[in-house]
Design a protein that fits this description.
about 0% strand, MFS_trans_sf, transmembrane helix, MFS_dom, transmembrane, MFS general substrate transporter, mainly alpha, globular
Length: about 500
């Protein structure tokens, strides 16, 4: 930090407006609310929650819908879609699925640089608007090649959203609140997104209207919904705490001071290419990226192929769309419980991830033809598998953000972790090969179980390493994350 302190630093380090805070610095066991009126803190953070979380949920919900409604369109109107644009031949459906993830992965890190430069509201709402237009265009695709190309462009614009949301959330909340907010953000989006299958079926009933098939209307109407969300986002989305105009000076001081006391990184430092090279040498982002990827392999596999799996259990198209919703709705309960445990008992973050990983493995074995034979038991396995994936995606993301400090590294971590989530989508598309559909996607099932078994073991080992490093910091004065008072929460 330079000798000349920025206005943001002065706002954090000066005495608070209620006269209670003399200095704000990170410390392992500091009370981040010391000196503030508890009622004012609660009211301020509730104000932040209502301005930030709902619009992020809406944006990510439409993101999940748009990247996966290819499966909805095909399930609702498969025969026509395959005949009209040729999606039923060979590996064409798999190729269309894959093209989204290539630009999505490549552009994750550059998108974080643009977030600060253009501002949250401009950058994210523009991205949503542009991919909404792409969604509408997909409804008019004349062949599968065009649809694949449009899916790639969709990946370009969606690359900005998820890492941007993860980074934005981490800049507003201290570590003890991060898991709950990430879980609320992600699981709400996942549950709401799954109602898209039912809504999509309703859109497909417009089959023949204005000469367009039902699958085309699914893309068009979801595209229109996306454009509406983009407009709302532009009008309501908030920026980073140091730029927040909806807070008073006193409320901004509370938010920044709590962050500074928790991890000493309330002041923005830009993400540069030299810092990217430096942060790339740390093993933690890559390990968390693996954990995240293993969870998304299952989530994407179920998003794209669950209708087929349910059909194998004897359910028709409508039943498959309806039965897709309950497992995701159920997952909210264990997700909130594990998030509460992770935030309340801060050295349990690895434990809740290991538990969810085991649920995912057991559930995957049950719903596949490797495990249970009875229909009810296999459907119950879907509940466990969805629970494991929907819990671990936000839990891993929050653990990753609590294990580092510095805003630039936080942006890098979010981009790398979410980037590997896109890789998980590619792996799911390849591992769950359409040629193995009749065999219950045996290769994909085994791969999903194996990759999550590695996560369970890896999380346990990382927990041991973090405790060891914390002991070294206490006894020998080792500096963690370039701050003498920082301690890992594992």
């Amino acid at each position: 930090m330079s000798e000349k302190k920025s206005d943001a630093v002065e706002a954090v380090e000066r005495p608070s407006l209620d006269g209670g805070v003399k200095e704000a610095q990170a410390a392992p066991f500091v009370d981040i609310d010391d000196g503030f009126d508890p009622a004012l803190v609660k009211r301020t953070m509730r104000k932040v929650d209502w301005r930030l979380i709902p619009i992020l949920i809406a944006m990510y919900t439409i993101s999940l819908i748009d990247r996966t409604n290819l499966a909805t369109a095909r399930a609702a109107n498969k025969v026509k879609m395959d005949r009209e644009i040729g999606t039923g031949s060979g590996q064409r459906y798999t190729i269309i699925t894959l093209t989204f993830f290539i630009p999505y992965i490549i552009l994750e890190i550059p998108s974080q640089i643009g977030l600060r430069y253009f501002g949250v509201r401009n950058w994210l709402s523009a991205a949503v608007l542009l991919w909404g237009v792409i969604m509408i265009c997909m409804g008019f695709a004349p062949n599968w090649n065009t649809l694949a190309g449009l899916r790639a462009v969709l990946g370009v614009f969606e690359a900005a959203l998820f890492p941007g949301c993860a980074y934005l959330l981490s800049c507003w909340y201290p570590r003890r609140s991060m898991a709950k907010r990430n879980v609320l953000f992600y699981t709400s989006s996942a549950v709401l997104g799954n109602f898209a299958t039912i809504i999509g079926y309703g859109f497909s009933l417009m089959d023949g209207t204005r000469g367009l098939s039902g699958w085309a209307w699914i893309f068009i109407w979801f595209g229109i919904m996306t454009v509406v969300v983009a407009i709302v986002a532009y009008l309501t989305l908030v920026d980073f705490p140091d730029r927040a105009t909806f807070l008073t000076e006193e409320e901004r001081n509370i938010v920044l001071t709590r962050i500074q006391r928790d991890r000493a990184d309330s002041v923005h430092d830009p993400l540069t290419w030299s810092k990217i090279v430096k942060y790339s040498k740390d093993f933690k982002p890559w390990l968390f990226a693996w954990f995240f990827m293993s969870a998304t392999v299952s989530s994407y596999a179920l998003a794209y192929f669950l209708p087929v799996i349910l059909a194998q259990l004897g359910f028709d198209n409508v039943q498959s769309m309806v039965l897709n919703v309950p497992p995701n709705a159920w997952s909210v309960i264990p997700a909130l419980i594990t998030a509460y445990i992770a935030d309340r008992y801060r050295n349990t973050r690895a434990a809740v991830i290991m538990f969810s990983g085991i649920c995912l493995i057991v559930g995957t074995a049950m719903y596949s033809q490797l495990g249970a034979k009875q229909k009810v038991a296999r459907y119950a396995g879907i509940f466990l598998a969805v629970q494991g994936g929907n819990c671990n995606v936000p839990l891993v993301l929050s653990w990753a953000q609590t294990s580092i400090r510095a805003q630039s590294k936080r942006a890098f971590m979010a981009a790398v972790v979410v980037c590997f989530g896109g890789l998980g989508g590619i792996l799911a598309s390849v591992a769950f090969n359409q040629n193995e559909a009749k065999k219950g996607y045996r290769s994909g099932v085994i791969f999903t179980m194996a990759i999550n078994a590695v996560t369970v073991v890896g999380a346990g080992l990382l927990h041991v390493w973090m405790r060891f490093e914390n002991r070294r910091a206490e006894k020998n004065g080792k500096v963690l994350e370039e701050d003498e008072n920082f301690r890992y929460q594992g």
